[in-house]
Amino acid sequence: MDKIFASIITIGDELLIGQVVDTNSSWIAQELSKIGVTLKHRVAVGDIWDDIWQALDEESKLADIIIITGGLGPTADDITKPLLCSYFDAQMVVHQPTLEHVQHIFENILKRPMIERNAKQAEVPNNCTVLKNEKGTAPGMLFKRDGKIFVSLPGVPFEMKWIMANHVLPMIPQLYETGFIEHRTLLTAGIGESFLAEMIQSFEKALPAHIKLAYLPNFGMVRLRLSGWGSDQNILIHEISSFFDSLKELVNEYLIIDEDLPIEVAVGNLLKARNETVSTAESCTGGFIAHMLSIHPGSSTFFTGSIISYANIIKETMLDVSHKTLTTVGAVSEEAVIQMAKTVRNSMNTHYSIAVSGIMGPGGATNEKPVGLVWIAVASAHKVVSKSFGFRFDRRRNIELTTSNALNMLRALIVDNSRENI
Amino acid sequence: MDKIFASIITIGDELLIGQVVDTNSSWIAQELSKIGVTLKHRVAVGDIWDDIWQALDEESKLADIIIITGGLGPTADDITKPLLCSYFDAQMVVHQPTLEHVQHIFENILKRPMIERNAKQAEVPNNCTVLKNEKGTAPGMLFKRDGKIFVSLPGVPFEMKWIMANHVLPMIPQLYETGFIEHRTLLTAGIGESFLAEMIQSFEKALPAHIKLAYLPNFGMVRLRLSGWGSDQNILIHEISSFFDSLKELVNEYLIIDEDLPIEVAVGNLLKARNETVSTAESCTGGFIAHMLSIHPGSSTFFTGSIISYANIIKETMLDVSHKTLTTVGAVSEEAVIQMAKTVRNSMNTHYSIAVSGIMGPGGATNEKPVGLVWIAVASAHKVVSKSFGFRFDRRRNIELTTSNALNMLRALIVDNSRENI
Is a pLDDT exceeding 90 seen at residue A105? Predict the structure, then answer.
C-alpha cells in the first residue's frame, strides 16, 4: 500500500497581499490527516490565469488529490471556474438543481431579488460532479483525470468546510486505500524546547522510521506530537500508544495535558467533570480570558462571567481594590490581583476565579514596572495562589501568554483542590 | 522596469497536518507589497529533505526573492540549515558573533546553562550573510545565486518579523528597482458582494490594466480594495486616489470607513478624537467585544471596562435586568439588552456603552429563539438604539459577526451624536 498524497491550491490575490490569513488550509490538513491522507504540499497563487494553470499542472504531478479553494464568488476577480472549464476541456452548462438552490436562497433566506450574476453561480463545466453547497450559492466541483481527483471549493470557510465534511471526506476512503495515520499529542509547560529535546534525546533516536516526533512551541508552552503511519490501524494504535506512554513518563515533571486540547478546553473539562464554576477579573487581558473560556460550546455550564476593570477606577468601585493599594503598590501588584480574585469570586458566587493585571505594551511601562510585567492570582474557597511573570514580547503575544499562564494556574489549583478534598 | 517577484516557502510538518495556522505569510506579503514587491507564490512543505530541495528549485524559477521560514529551531525535526548548506555548496562553520549572542541570551536573560544543542544554533553555512536575530537564538541567513536572493528565517513570528523589518526589508530596494505598489481600501456594510459588484460594474470595467479591484468579504461586511502598480510613485498615487474617490461616491450609501482599518480601530479613533469612553455588557460574546476594543495599543484612553454576564443571574445582580424580564421575554430580548446597556454605562460612568445577548450555538435554541438570534443595544447619554440580528453560521463566526455589528452600531451612534451636538 502506498501513501495517498494531497495538495492544496489556494486562489486569491488577497492571500498574496496578506489581507487575509489562510485558515482553510490548516483545517483541510487536519481533516485529511484523520482519514490517512498525507498533505504533501500547499500552494497559494493569485487570481492570474497562467499561475493557476501552472499550479494545477505542478500539483497533479505531486499528489493524488488536489483541493482547490477560493475564486468561485460572484464577482469579476474570480476566474477559477472558467479556467477549470478550459483545463478539463469542458463546456459551461447550467446545473438545474444548483440554479433552484440559488433561487431558493434568494427567495426564502436572503429575501431579495436574484440578479444575473447570482444565477451564473449555477453554471458548471459539463464534465464535473457537482457537490451541493448547503451553506451558500457557489457549488463545489469534482473532476477526475488520470486516476487523480481535483476538487474545487469556495473560499468562504464555513461553506468550504460543509462541502468537505459532507461530500469530499466521505468519498476519499471509497476511492483510495489510504492506510491510517495516528497522532498523539501532549502539552508541557515550564521547560524550553531545547531542554525538552535534550531530555528525550534517546527516546527520539529509538523511534522507528514510520513514527515521527515533532516539537510545537506555542503560547510559552511546548506541545510534543507523535505521528505514525501504517496499513493496520490496530497495530499502529497499539504501537504509537506504547511510545506515547514512554514519552509521558519521560516528561512527567512538565506534563500538563496528554491530549491535543487547547489549555482552555482542558480547564473547561475539569470544571464540567466537577460541576464547578469560574469567573474572571481582568485588567490587562481586556476580556481575552473570558473569551477563551466562552468560545467553545457548552461553556455556560462552568463560566459565570467577568468584570473587566480596564480603568483603575473600576478596580476600586467594582473589585474593592483599595485606593491605598492603587496609590502605593499600584494596579499591577500582588495585593491588587489577590483582592480582584477574591471579590469577583464572591460577587459572581463561583467556585474559582482568575485575576490578572499587567503591562502589555508598547506603552505603560515605568522604571519599576517594565512592559511584560504581569501579576496573576487564582482563587478557590480555601486558597489564593499568586505569581508574577515577565513576558518579553509584543502586546498581542503578552496577552496570549498571560491568558495561557492564568489558565494553567487555575488548572493546577483545581487539581490540587480535588486532591485535598479526597 | 520589470516587476520584482517574491515567493515564500514555509517549512514544517505542523503546517501540513494543520496544527498551526500560518500567520507569517500574510505579514510578509503585506510588508513586501508596501515596498513594491509582488508576491507570486506561497508554498508550504513538510520537514522532508527532497520536498524542501524541490521547492527551492521551483520557486527560484518563479521569483527574484525567495523567503524561507521555519525549520531553524534547536530540535531534531529541523533539517533546513543542513539542507541549505548542501544546496548552496557550503561548509558549516561557527559564526562567532552569533555564538556570543546565544551565550548572552542564556547567561543574562534566560539565566540557565547553555547546552550543546543551543550552541549549534550559531553554526551557519560559510557562504551566507548572517542576519542577526535580536529576538532569539536562531539567526537569519541570506544567500545569493544567479541574481536572486534566498533568505532563511526562523518560524517564530516575532523573531521572523524582527529580522525582516531590520535586515531584509531595508535591503531589497537597494538590490532591485522594485517600482511602487499602492493600495486603497474601503469598508462597506449592509450590502452583499454580488449587489456591490452590480452597482460598480461600469467603474470596474473602466479601470486601466495596472489597477485592479478586489472584493474581500469578511465578518458580514465587504472590503473593496484598489491596487495599482507603477514606476512613478507620485503619478500612481494621484491616479489611484482619483479612482478611489469615484469608488467612494458610487458606494457612498454603504460606506463605513475609507481606510484599511479594522472596525474596532475605526471606533477607537473616533472615541480618541472626541475624548470619549465606552464600556460593554456582554452575554453571548463572552468578552470578545472587550478584547477587540483593548487589543490595540492606546485603548486605555477610551475603553473603561465590561461586565461579562454569561450567566443570567449576573444580568440580574450586576446589570439590573429584572427577574420578570428574564422569566417573561427572556435574556435574549430587546428589554434585556437595553437595560444592560443603560446599567453598564452608568456604573462604569462612560459616554457610550454596548450590550449584547444572543444564542451563538450549537446548543441553546428554543422554538421561538433560533441559533443566531442576537439583540444588540448601544447607548449614549441621550439615546439608546437597539436592533435584532439573525446570523446563520457557526459559534465562532456568530460571535465575530455580533461583535462587528455591535461596533458598527456604536460607530453610527457616535457619528450621529456628534452631528446632533453641532
Answer: no
CB contact under 8 A, A194 and B18: no
Residues 6+ apart with CB under 8 A from B70: B10, B11, B12, B15, B80, B154, B155
The count of structural domains within chain B is 3
Does the ipTM surpass 0.85? no
**Among B238, B257, B276, residue at a domain's last position:** B257
Chain A residues whose CB is inside 8 A of the B362 CB are 297
* Cβ within 8 Å, pair B26-A18: yes
Q: Containing domain of residue A410, as a range? A: 263-421
Is B76's pLDDT higher than 60? Answer: no
Does residue B167 share a domain with residue B203? no
Whether residue B3 lies within 8 A of chain A, CB to CB, comes out as: no
Given pLDDT bands bounded at 50, 70 and 90, which one contains residue A121? confident
| B352 lies within 8 A of chain A by CB | no
Q: Which residues of B362-400 are buried (b: 16+ CB within 10 A; e: fewer)?
A: eebeeeeeebbbbbbbbbbeeebbbeebebebbbebbbb
Give the separation between CA B359 and CA B37, rounded to whole angstroms: 45
Give CA–CA dist B313/B323, Å, rounded. 9
Q: Are residues A67 and A168 in the same domain?
A: yes
Same domain, A45 and A170: yes
Q: What is the mean pLDDT of chain B?
A: 91
Q: Which residues of A touch B318 (CB under 8 A)?
A: 305, 347
3-state DSSP call for residue A224?
strand
| Phi and psi angles of residue B280, each rounded to the nearest 5 degrees, phi first | -135, 150
Q: Which residues of A touch B41 (CB under 8 A)?
A: 43-45, 51
The domain boundary residue, chosen from A133, A157, A175:
A175
Question: Is the Cβ of A312 closer than 8 Å to some Cβ of chain B?
Answer: no
Q: With contact defined as beta carbons under 8 Å apart, do B117 and B31 qualify?
A: no
Q: Of A358, A253, A353, which Cα lies nearest the Cα of A306?
A: A353
Together in a domain, A123 and A25: yes
Q: Is residue B269 classed exposed, middle or buried when 0-12, 13-18 and 19+ CB atoms within 10 A define those classes?
A: middle
Chain A CB contacts of B29 under 8 Å are 15-18
Distance from CA of A413 to the nearest CA of B (A): 23
DSSP summary character for residue B126: T
Establish if B311 touches chain A: CB-CB under 8 angstroms. yes
* pLDDT single digits (tens) A13-29: 877 877 677 888 889 98
Q: Does the CB of B395 have a partner CB in chain A at under 8 Å?
A: yes
With H, G, I as helix, E, B as strand and everything else as coil, classify residue A55: helix
Looking at residue B14, its pLDDT comes to: 74
CATH number for position B410: 3.90.950.20
Each residue's pLDDT tens digit, A343-381: 999 999 999 999 999 999 998 888 889 999 999 999 999
Q: Do B304 and A314 touch (CB under 8 A)?
A: yes
Chain A residues touching residue B287 (CB < 8 angstroms): 282, 287-291, 294, 306, 308
Residue B36: per-residue pLDDT:
84
Closest chain A C-alpha to B225 CA, distance in angstroms: 9
Answer yes or no: do B242 and B378 share one domain: no
pTM above 0.90, yes or no: no
Task: Among B50-59, B213-222, B241-250, B276-285, name the one with the lowest average pLDDT.
Answer: B213-222
Assess B17–A contact: CB distance below 8 Å, yes or no: yes
Q: Write out chain A residues lying below 8 Å of B294, CB-based.
A: 286-287, 308, 310
Handedness of CA B13, B17, B21, B26 (dihedral sign): positive
CATH number at residue B73: 3.40.980.10
One domain for residues A54 and A18? yes
Q: What is the pLDDT of residues B318-360, one digit of tens each?
A: 999 999 999 999 999 999 999 999 999 999 999 999 999 999 9
Q: What is the pLDDT, as a whole number, of residue B374?
A: 97
Least confident window among A119-123, A140-144, B1-5, B142-146:
B1-5
